[in-house]
Design brief:
4-stranded parallel sheet, 368 residues, globular
């Protein structure tokens, strides 16, 4: 049966001009809801393909409550992508100029309450990187000193030792007792411990290559000294007046021994002069020639072991070629000297006033 045209709510096809709901095609321009395809210009909700202002793809000019893409000029809340100029509560990407809280990336100029990276100029309450000019609680303890830099040694010892940038120990501020030189030290400077009567023992690690002039001179209570392999130079008067032991009331000596490591190649004049409790000195054989010096001024007569009043025994190494003048002068109880096989010369006064030295066995290498 033919459908009736121009009527409302029929199941057939509407005639052009019908404005109400039908089950067929609507006339272009119809503004009401239909179940079929709507007029491209229709602006409100249809079930078919919608006009840009309907529940399908929306008209770029539509400004209210659609399920599709909103008009770039739309300023209210939508479910789709928001207009870049939209500044309020959207679920999409926000306008870079938006200064209020968003869930996306914030404007680089925004300075408050963001979860992203903060403006490098922002100075308050950010989770990002702070201004590089703000530095507090510095861990390094390095401070400039007249001699160099106070090294941070990572323990209480750093207060005791002043070490310059070259690794030279330039000052000691400790309380004394048994002292262990830090293994960051490569040289002990001139006069560092001079006349310090509080130190009783010292351990010098293998990192120390040089002991400077008069470094321990006058340390009259220093009874124990450990020199480790690695040391190469012992300076002029380095241990002048150091006892290297202690004497009981009975006259018995406790300690009184010294070993010179095989790495030592130079010993300065008066280095161990007047060491009153030193009884035995043993030199280890080394790969390089050992040179023991004396003052060039004969009037000083300051040999390296001169006036060691308790010295009884000396064992010399094979790498010592020359015994200099006065090296063991005025050692009245020296009884035994063992010469190394490389010895070539014994200078004048080397054993001057050694009244207890009865005999000696000289090596074949000796020339004068």
């Amino acid at each position: 049966m033919a459908a009736e045209t121009g009527s409302e709510g029929s199941d057939g096809q509407l005639t052009p001009g019908a404005e109400d709901e039908t089950g067929g095609d609507t006339e272009p321009g119809v503004e009401d809801e239909t179940g079929s395809e709507t007029d491209p210009e229709a602006g409100e909700g249809t079930d078919g393909e919608t006009n840009p202002g309907t529940g399908g793809e929306t008209d770029p000019g539509a400004g209210e409550g659609t399920d599709g893409e909103t008009n770039p000029g739309d300023g209210e809340e939508t479910d789709g992508e928001t207009n870049p100029d939209d500044g309020e509560g959207t679920g999409g990407e926000t306008d870079p100029d938006d200064e209020e809280k968003t869930d996306g990336e914030t404007d680089p100029d925004a300075g408050e309450g963001t979860d992203g990276e903060t403006d490098p100029d922002a100075g308050e309450g950010t989770d990002g990187e702070t201004d590089l000019e703000e530095e507090e609680e510095i861990d390094d303890l390095e401070t400039e000193t007249e001699e160099g830099t106070l090294s941070a040694l990572g323990s209480a010892r750093e207060v005791e030792f002043v070490i310059d940038t070259k690794g030279t120990l330039t000052a000691y501020n400790g309380t004394g007792g048994d002292v262990t030189i830090p293994d960051t030290v490569t040289a002990i400077g001139k006069n560092v411990f001079k006349e310090n009567v509080n130190i009783t023992g010292v351990t010098i690690p293998g990192s120390v290559l040089t002991i400077g002039e008069s470094a321990f001179s006058g340390c009259t209570r220093l009874v124990k000294v450990n020199l480790n392999e690695g040391l190469t130079t012992i300076g002029i008067g380095a241990f002048d007046g150091v006892p290297f032991g202690s004497k009981e009331l009975s006259g018995a000596i406790t300690g009184g021994s010294l070993t010179i490591p095989k790495t030592v190649t130079s010993i300065g004049a008066a280095a161990f002069m007047k060491s009153e409790c030193l009884e035995t000195v043993v030199f280890e054989n080394g790969p390089e020639e050992l040179v023991i010096e004396s003052y060039r001024d004969p009037s000083r007569n300051a040999g390296a072991f001169k006036e060691c009043k308790s010295l009884k025994q000396v064992i010399l190494p094979d790498n010592l070629k020359i015994l200099p003048r006065y090296v063991f002068g005025d050692c009245p109880v020296l009884e035994e000297v063992r010469f190394g096989n490389g010895l070539q010369s014994i200078d004048e006064g080397a054993f001057r006033s050694c009244s207890s030295l009865q005999a000696a066995s000289f090596p074949a290498s000796l020339r004068s």
